[in-house]
Amino acid sequence: MKKLLVSTALMLSLALPALAQDYSPDPNAKPGGSIIVTYKDDVATLDPAIGYDWQNWSMIKSLFDGLMDYVPGTTTLRPGLAESHDVSADGLVYTFKLRPGVKFHNGRELTAEDVKYSLDRVTNPATQSPGAGFFASIAGFENAGDGGLSGVEVVDPQTVRITLTRPDATFLHVMALNFSFVVPKEVVEAEGADFGKKPVGTGAFKLTEWTLGQRLVFEKNPDYWVAGVPYLDSFTVEVGQEPVVALLRLQNGEVDLPGDGIPPAKFQEVMADPAQAERVVQGGQLHTGYVTMNVTQPPFDKVEVRRAVNMAINKDRVVQIINGRAVPANQPLPPSMPGYTQDYAGYAYDVEGAKKLLADAGYPDGFETELFVMNTDPNPRIAQAIQQDLAAIGIKAAIQSLAQANVIEAGGAGTAPMIWSGGMAWIADFPDPSNFYGPILGCAGAAEGGWNWSKYCNEALDAKAVEADSMFDPAKSGDRLKLWSDIYMGVMEDAPWAPVFNEERYTMRSERMGGEDALYVDPVSIPVNYDYVWVKE
Length: 537
Description:
The chain has helices at residues 19-22, 57-63, 112-123, 171-174, 185-191, 243-251, 264-272, 274-277, 303-312, 315-321, 351-360, 379-391, 404-413, 459-469, 477-494; strands at 12-13, 34-39, 68-70, 77-79, 82-87, 93-98, 152-156, 159-163, 205-211, 215-220, 234-239, 257-258, 280-284, 287-293, 326-328, 367-374, 395-402, 418-420, 426-427, 497-508, 513-514, 534-535. By secondary structure, it is α+β, with helices and mostly antiparallel strands. The strands form 5 sheets. Strands 13, 14, 15, 16, 17, 18, 19 and 20 form an 8-stranded mixed beta sheet that branches. The protein has a 5-stranded antiparallel beta sheet with strand order 1-5-6-8-7, covered by helices on one side. The protein has a 5-stranded mixed beta sheet with strand order 9-10-11-2-12.
């Protein structure tokens, strides 16, 4: 990896401001009270090293903490368990100073040994963590196992030093991921495989009951290290609730938050009722749905053909198919992602212009191809709309509607000429533009079995991506985001994708729920930030 050239005598002091400067408590917030949240399915696990789905993410976030965190309702990093950190001049050594007096739910004080144990554990192949790969830049990752990570050192009880093998501007985001959350060794070892059902962390809430198939109860941690929060005394997650039933219970005042959101079949009905629509919360998520085109296969090896596809798709009509619960996309990054190019219009919907591009590419009469799609609603309907749009410019796309695993297999093998990504589309793991590039647009992701289904590889853009992720100095963050913007504009010039829409999150809250809307569609504490919501009564 290319290193950022700076004086080796320079130390970048990156001590972050106190929490009060990062987030102003809601002056209207009232402490106390309890709420009820519903989900159709039971929770799989609350082990932060293993849990990795929409449902358990925010519960894990309320039970545990990492060295870094985010300002509630935003994608802005702030201090977590580490009250400050320093980065060496070459960007390879991070030294974290822990907050004194932080306690686990069992009353024991957290130390640097717990941080090392937690990072060693998540990267140990025996843990089988789906997030282990996020730590690949830490020295010793390749040999991680029972011996732990050589790059994670305990300096003293309050200090941890982490050495990387390459500069990585995303590293602080990784330290805020749930996979980095700190766990107590003695509890993990005592509970073994049951730790995910009997979690102990340092978070704002602690789990006091889990009746499988029925409910989970989370109660306020009176020793939480952030003053003044959480506001709630407790929250209960009831499982086994069909979304339509949960909505009815919400309407009857029996439920405060429907975890699965507004059922699609009821969306128009809810939005047509002013009283209900007033309680609907909408927010962007770090998601893009797109059509991939295999650039290694004719006719998609010609950029004019790929641009024609971009111009042929009526994105507004596709958004209507999902009841308007998205905004048309014009680039790979979603609008709420840092690095999004605000003044870029993308490819306009232009049927005649698309026909001309096809003719220029040597296909005046169009061609035949296949469009692969996951076979769960609404994705086949979206594929049919795209199929009709392509037919209008002479492209006859036969739809291959298959199980998710089969579509993913065809994409990874490179046997699918086109894929509608719906149901498998990218949602960022953390709010940094690099997360949308490497796995799904970079050269490495184009390898067999990878998620870069367009098999697109632009080595010049890859080199710029390496340069961008070597810019670890926060003072250069503006330059870094500009570089990422340029990278994605380069992608759109090559047009390996046709970005179609960015899904919006819609949920509802009961009349008694307080707090700003962003907390209910939190881009990081998906789907809701329990630590900062409150009740009015």
